[in-house]
Sequence to fold (289 residues):
Amino acid sequence: MAAISSVGEGYRRPWRRHPAVRATRRVGFYVLLLLLWLPFFFVFAWMVETAFKTQLQNTAIPPLLIFKPTFENFVTVFSRNPMWRFLLNSVVVGTGATLLAMILGLPAAYGIARHRQQRLAVAILVARIMPGISYLVPWFIMFSSLKLIGSYATLIMAHLMITLPMTIWLMIGFFEDIPPELDEAALIDGCNPLQSFVRIALPLTRPGIAASAILSFIFSWNNFMFSLVLSNQNTRPLPVAVFSFISYTQVDWGGLNAAALIVTLPVLIMVMFVQKHMVRGLTLGSVKG
Fold:
């Protein structure tokens, strides 16, 4: 009956196989993709353009589309802020928060997936989507009493509130796709649960681990609020450099966008090199069964 039904379906809808229909659907797909992509490209292009304008050109009405580029804003950014130190701080904090999220998050996701703790998984998701300001005040009070404000450990632990729930939530789906029979076979062969996790589960979920690590690092790199409040002059990451171009009287749009471009470029370059791992990992994690 199923075969007859599928044949009948093909006879009832022969227009779907027509070349013109296929071409129209393909064009419609790319038009929709362009409409979704265009706002992001417009914002990025506007940021790049503003970074190479003077303050007078940035405040001109109507906006100037043809102008002589200047590197004055980038000179101001590096003269006003120790950008290389901020860059090193961002790398240290982002790497530390990502590694710690992998060490804690992978076993947690494996345990949740194997024991089907769906309520715990939802609780972790809720912790991830809660606004960061709800964690910031308790963090500040606690670390102030411990006199740890401005240390790398404080920033890494604060960023862990971003990277750890994301790692756990993404990896639950990957571990659920591993058949339990593989773990049972490993236990029969003499492995304990930890060895089964290390030798069986982790190698089979390497694409998911790569995607989780990349996304965790990017979110930690772009975090601004925790870095602004819990850091000092010696440990401030790159996003805090953007804040120095905003004052009560005016906004230095050129310097602001030049600093934002410097913050964005390292992540953009990294994504260009690792996008295959991200797409492969997220695609595999979305397939069940």
User: Anything to note?
Assistant: The longest helix spans residues 19-51. Residues 1-11, 285-289 have pLDDT under 50 and may be disordered. DSSP finds 14 helices and no strands in the chain. The CA atoms of residues 186 and 199 lie 9 Å apart.
